[in-house]
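Quick one: structure tokens for this chain, please?
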Amino acid sequence: MRSLLQIISFSMLILTVMFPLLYLFDAVNETTMKGAILVVTVVWFVATPLWMKWEGQDSAD
């Protein structure tokens, strides 16, 4: 579960950079970019604390 959350968290960081680049190259419009960045940011803020919570618990198992 922790690995899945880390993958989701890292993917969201990549998408946070990718959407402005897509906007720069006119692949998406401004409204789409802003909406996507909002969603990506919310998902990142939910996923990251969940996997960080388990950081010290892996060694106890």
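The two ends are 14 Å apart (CA to CA).
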